[in-house]
Specification:
The complex is a heterodimer. Chain A is of the alpha+beta class. Chain A contains 24 helices and 31 strands. Chain A has a domain of about 130 residues: Orthogonal Bundle (Penicillin amidase (Acylase) alpha subunit, N-terminal domain), CATH 1.10.1400. The model of chain A has no long low-confidence stretch (mean pLDDT about 95). Classes of the chains: A alpha+beta, B mainly alpha. At the A-B interface, helix 1 and helix 2 of A face helix 3, helix 4 and helix 5 of B.
Chain lengths: ~800, ~120
């Protein structure tokens, strides 16, 4: 034995193993444990699925009540045939986990404010944000409501059992790739996790509530009179969901302004707010939906269309599935993480949602006795604060404990402990309808089983947050739309800014009776539609929220087209859903051109102007005009407002682009055209637009040099992996569309599921989503649909009866589930 | 002969150990060490047989998996790691990592063994 070399080599070997068994820091992230990760028997290689994989299997599961069959078609869509509802949701849970486990768990980590637990302190601020928003508190309340109803309890219990039965069957070597990358393991699923997922959707879809803080600053900075001009409450060109001229019933609640509204709210300007929300959901988290009556279709039967616009991610937020039991047969897009089918159809009806965008999240400034926050001033007395402990585990560090101060309004989100720049000693509590116990799952459960209009109305009646526009069509010919949610009865401008929280005078004065929610069925015009625009005009007796929450132009474009269309086929609807006409640009172009004196332009400026003038107003992939318009418009917008905000020190908001456009349409002496930084001259829009074109030309020249003048290249749409790893994402997709366009595809956001259902006796349905059924980046089925989606094409959906499934030539695999 | 025996034994044992989920990824290091203790060779040869055993075992396994997967995942991992998006580079790195650990473990075994 050679002792010295033996010790040396043993040390080297051990050191090598330890290094390869450690997550090494690289920049802000960490590598996987490389030895483990590269091991062909343990690591990522285990996730490299053979491309000729067969999903045929006989699976024995304890917990099932009876045997069940699942047929997979060639796109890996499962068609589940169970003998009872419990088994169906058990299997839905099992299949979601089999194909999407990492994603569904990861999203609940985000919602629960637990990301630090798996990725370290880099995400602590986000975690704190969700804890302080009361996400866990909200999910707990919702879960109570869900479990109080026997149907939804049964559904949730079955789903959770199904997910866990998959997790328990999972060999450590076979856990999804991302667990191996980040080095953690799946934990047991719970009903609470599903509730958290639903709350995440509430967060994502209940609008720009946190913008109240920055809006307060904006109002204080400009003063109420100027603010009103910059931020009008209704847009002139609004084409609401419920057409103008509709008479609304007398308000059930007579909302009254607080007495101190002028002094303590609108004209108060000393409450500048230093706190900055670390994230605000995408303003365009919206969607399109419409249903046309048989009177307008070729088949004589209604057609329903829906495309929800969300962040574009891989794995996709949607998982396509058919669920058939003796009680119903439904097909559509499901959320991995929750049971049932939120958007889809059954053998008699189809349903879909768009976001209502109503403001259901408001902030109140709280006066605490001292910095211990033990007591706060409310209705002329000191009230004891309740505290809620939120412990955030941090990978590799000590736990972080948030003591959430709970007031009559809700949790105190912003105080000196959160958002470091907020050391001004002020406290802001949040009141959010998502905190209230509600059972949104029951709506989907009932919609999946609905047979007619009455069932639909009944199904959506329990849906509280996030407010949605539920569109509906039935094979008996009925079509309908209804904006459903638990909406506070607000006075005009209530909750646009932070409100005084020292007494009850600024509290919401009640909730609008759901019978008063905007709705219509079988209208004479033969269609219903929504695209996140304001649901009603200003004759509606309640305030809906800031105008900026409601995109204007998609609604205008859709309605204009639907009015003109007749003899409609599903193919026509596909063309409409993917339409790239830019109605905003069509309105803006003549206005901009009016202000341009071409004699003042050089050759280069003239060149881009000519591209703009000859543009067909479509945001197609190859259109250069679309890029020129975007850059020019942004330049005009900046030229108009940048000077007015140049002295702003705190986060503030700029007006809506639609506000600028509408102001220019009615008033060529727009007051904000003047550059307040130049004291010797009063600029007009003539100066502004020419100067903007000159600046835009510089930008456009650079863009052209980079070869990105074509709209598709300039916009550069991508579908990113949830961990933002480019190698697991689909980048540079050739797809048109964009903001204000029916095909609302922006660079990382857009139609996350496109669905068209014609309610003929044999339902004819088409759909596509930018993803694939498998969440495994090592699977051929990971991004199968992305190119089809980008090309604006659709898949015909197989909606099969059990006896047909066995023999259908598009069915490729079959799993038999046996209880055992 | 000893050289080949050592390579085959190390590879076989390592593969078998790898089948046990509960054992860590580096269980093959013990196999390489054990084989070097049992099949005595000079240190240089012991290192080489350990290295080659795992280089081949991990390399061939990765190669087969990659072939059946039509390079889908290896190409992506080559972008994550980062290895320029080349699937073969990931296979090579996999083989080398396995080989190095096994080689050093075998070398240790060879030195531990009495002359």
């Amino acid at each position: 034995m050679r002792i010295v070399p033996a010790i040396i080599t043993a040390t080297v070997t051990t050191a090598l193993i330890i290094t390869l068994n450690t997550q090494l820091p690289v920049g802000e992230s960490k590598t996987p444990r490389l030895g483990y990760f590269l091991s062909p028997q343990k690591g990522f290689w285990k996730n490299a699925e053979p491309t000729d994989i067969s999903f045929d299997e006989d699976i024995k599961l304890t917990g099932l009540k009876a045997a069940a069959e699942v047929y997979f078609d060639d796109r890996l869509v499962p068609h589940v045939y169970a003998e009872n509802d419990y088994d169906a949701y058990f299997i839905q849970g099992y299949l979601h986990a089999k194909f999407r486990l990492w994603q569904m768990e990861f999203e609940t980590y985000v919602a629960a404010g637990r990301l630090s637990e798996i990725v370290g302190e880099g995400r602590l601020n986000t975690d704190k944000y969700f804890r302080r928003l009361g996400m866990v508190y909200a999910a707990e309340n919702s879960l109570k409501a869900i479990e109080a109803n026997p149907d939804t309890k049964n559904t949730m219990d079955a789903y959770t059992a199904g997910v866990n039965s998959y997790i328990n069957s999972l060999n450590d070597n076979d856990i999804p790739l991302e667990y191996k990358l980040l080095d953690y393991k799946p934990e047991p699923w719970t009903n609470m996790k599903s509730a958290l997922f639903l709350k995440f959707m509430s967060f994502d879809l209940s609008g720009q509530g946190d913008a109240d803080l920055g809006m307060t600053n904006t109002k204080n900075f400009f003063g109420w009179d100027i603010y009103k001009k910059l931020f009008p409450t209704v847009a002139d060109s609004l084409d609401p969901i419920i057409p103008k001229g509709t008479t609304f019933e007398k308000a059930g609640i007579n909302v009254s302004f607080p007495k101190s509204i002028d002094s303590l709210y609108l004209n108060k300007n000393d409450n500048m707010i230093a706190a900055v929300p670390p994230m605000i959901p995408d303003k365009d988290n919206g969607s399109n939906n419409w249903a046309v009556a048989g009177s307008k279709t070729k088949s004589g039967k209604p057609i329903l269309c829906n495309d929800p616009h969300l962040g574009l991610n891989l794995p996709s937020i949607w998982f396509e599935i058919q669920i058939t039991t003796p009680s119903h047969s439904a097909y559509g897009a499901s959320f991995p993480g929750t049971p049932t089918i939120p958007i889809g159809f059954n053998d008699s009806c189809a349903w879909g949602e768009t976001n209502a965008g109503r403001d259901v999240k408001d902030f109140y400034e709280i006066k605490f006795k001292d910095s211990t926050m033990q007591e706060y001033w409310f209705n002329n007395a000191w009230v004891k604060t309740q505290f809620r402990k939120e412990v955030i585990k941090v990978k590799g560090k000590e736990d972080d404990t948030e003591n959430l101060a709970m007031t009559v309004f809700g949790p105190v989100m912003y105080d000196k402990k959160f958002q470091s720049n907020n050391k001004d000693g002020k406290y802001y509590a949040v009141r959010w309808t998502a905190h209230d116990a509600s059972n949104e799952l029951l709506t989907f459960y009932r919609l999946n089983r609905s047979k007619n209009y009455i069932d639909y109305v009944d199904a959506i009646s329990t849906f509280e947050c996030p407010g949605q526009n539920f569109v509906f069509a039935c094979n008996n010919g009925d079509i309908a739309i209804r904006q459903q949610g638990k909406f506070p009865a607000k006075w005009k401008r209530q909750g646009d800014f932070v409100m005084p929280g020292t007494d009850s005078s600024y509290l919401w004065q009640g909730f609008i009776d759901i019978k008063e929610n905007p709705q219509m069925s079988n209208p004479a015009r033969g269609f219903v539609s929504s695209a996140n625009q304001m649901a009603v005009d200003s004759t509606y007796p309640y305030y809906l929220g800031r105008n900026g929450n409601f995109p204007l132009y998609r609604g205008i474009a859709i309605n204009k087209r639907l009015v003109a269309m007749n003899n409609i086929t599903p193919a026509d609807m596909q063309a409409l859903q993917t339409d790239n006409f830019n109605v905003f640009a069509a309105t803006a172009r003549p206005v901009l051109l009016k202000y341009i004196d071409e004699t003042k332009l050089n050759a280069n400026e003239k060149k881009y102007l000519d591209i703009f003038k000859s543009w067909n107003l479509r945001a197609d992939v190859k259109e250069q005009g679309s890029t020129v318009f975007k850059v020019l418009w942004d330049s005009v917008y900046a030229e108009v407002y940048a000077d007015d905000y140049s002295k702003a020190k705190l986060p503030m908001y700029l007006p809506e682009p639609s506000t600028l456009l509408e102001s220019l349409l009615k008033d060529s002496n727009y007051v904000f055209a003047d550059n307040i930084l130049t004291t010797d001259k009063t600029e007009t829009m003539y100066d502004v637009v020419v100067k903007a074109l000159q600046k835009a030309t510089k930008t456009l020249t650079d863009i052209e040099k980079a070869g990105k003048l074509e709209w598709g290249k300039f916009k550069d749409t991508h579908v990113s992996h949830l961990l933002k790893l480019p190698a697991l994402s689909r980048l540079h997709l050739p797809i048109g569309g964009g903001e204000n366009i029916i095909n609302a595809t922006k660079s990382d956001h857009g139609p996350s599921w496109r669905m068209i259902v014609q309610l003929t006796d044999n339902i004819e349905a088409y759909a596509v989503y930018p993803g694939g059924q498998s969440g495994n980046p090592g699977s051929k089925y990971y991004d199968t649909f992305v190119d089809t989606w980008a090309a604006g094409k659709y898949y015909p959906l197989l909606f099969l009866k059990k006896q047909e499934a066995r023999h259908n030539n598009r069915v490729k695999w079959h799993i038999t589930f046996i209880n055992g | 002969m000893k050289f080949l025996t050592a390579i085959l034994l190390t590879a076989l044992l390592s593969f078998a150990f790898g089948l046990f989920t509960a054992l860590p990824w580096f269980s093959f290091a013990f196999c390489a060490l054990l084989v070097a203790l049992g099949v005595h060779q000079k240190p240089g040869k012991a290192f080489l047989s350990g290295f080659i055993a795992l280089f081949l075992l991990w390399g061939i396994m990765a190669l087969i998996i990659d072939f059946k997967n039509e390079h889908i995942l290896a190409t992506k991992i080559a972008g994550v790691l980062p290895l320029g998006g080349a699937a073969y580079a990931v296979i090579l790195v996999t083989a080398i990592v396995g080989g190095l650990v096994a080689g050093f473990a075998a070398l240790t075994g060879s030195y531990l063994r009495k002359k």
